[in-house]
Design brief:
Length: about 280
């Protein structure tokens, strides 16, 4: 207390001056004079800038939470889109074939896809066979051979799984090929050229198929990926003289240099299909 009194006595004149200045500024600000308007305008500008800075800081530290929320919402929307697409396709088939609900001999089953979100914790793009590590594992329902996609296209296939992590063989791998189709329905295979992470190749496209730069290429139902997932965009075509077939160069729709979040896709009908195919192979 004694220290405070000494401080006030020492700086009494300065404190009195500042107090009177504040009172004067408040009185002027309350008037409708030019000076009062300028003071209010300046105060609003300063406070606005302070609130903006505060909001920027809050938003920055909330980006991760916002990203997680958006990625989860996208997974939910993809699942709904998959179900909607299956329903519409089933309805078309029923109309086309003249089937009705009473016809129990014609049942069409469609794959149900479950999308699980994951964050990329490691990613390589310069090896012959590149891998992506994610922060989801068997405890989260991730298993081997599940497809992995990004928000813009395909990523790869799960090859190793631990309790809390999974390793994905990227499509940027010389030992992996993806079944693909052009806009006219022509089917082929996409492979990586083994050098640049932004170039993939579709080989043996017939010469009569008209392909131009900018055409999109998608996955097929024969692939382990869900159908109609974007693979890339054609940016160059080349004719191979020895077989007169086209070679298409694609830019992947997924930016592997900036891969942060992915979706692990579970095909609910896949185990049944594989069991059936394996039983056929074992029969004489």
């Amino acid at each position: 207390m004694r220290t405070f009194i000494l401080f006030v006595r020492r700086f009494f004149n300065l404190i009195l001056f500042l107090a009177l200045e504040i009172v004067c500024i408040m009185l002027i600000a309350r008037t409708k004079t030019l000076q009062g308007t300028d003071i209010v305008s300046s105060a609003n500008t300063v406070s606005g800038l302070m609130y903006k800075k505060q909001n920027d800081v809050v938003n920055y530290f909330g980006l991760r939470k916002m990203n997680d929320s958006l990625i989860n919402e996208n997974a939910h929307l993809r699942a709904m889109l998959s179900l909607s697409h299956s329903y519409d396709t089933l309805k078309d088939i029923i109309i086309r074939k003249g089937l009705d609900k009473a016809d129990s001999g014609h049942v069409v089953h469609y794959a149900e896809y479950v999308y699980r979100t994951a964050r990329v914790v490691n990613n390589s793009i310069s090896a012959a066979n590149n891998y992506v590590t994610i922060n989801r594992g068997s405890d989260d329902g991730v298993n081997r051979n599940m497809a992995v996609i990004s928000g813009s296209g395909i990523v790869g296939r799960v090859v190793h799984v631990s309790s809390h992590f999974a390793s994905i063989l990227s499509v940027l791998s010389v030992k992996q090929q993806v079944s693909a189709k052009l806009k006219d329905g022509t089917i082929g295979y996409i492979t990586w050229d083994g050098e640049r992470p932004d170039v993939m190749v579709m080989r043996d496209v017939p010469q009569q198929i008209k392909v131009k730069a900018g055409d999109s290429v998608f996955t097929t139902s024969y692939s382990f990926f869900p159908p109609d997932i974007m693979i890339g965009t054609v940016f160059k075509t080349e004719t191979v003289k020895k077989n007169n077939l086209q070679l298409l160069y694609l830019k992947p729709s997924t930016d592997f240099r900036d891969l942060q979040y992915v979706y692990v896709v579970e095909n609910k009908s896949d185990p049944e299909r594989k069991q059936l195919e394996d039983s056929v192979k074992t029969k004489p």
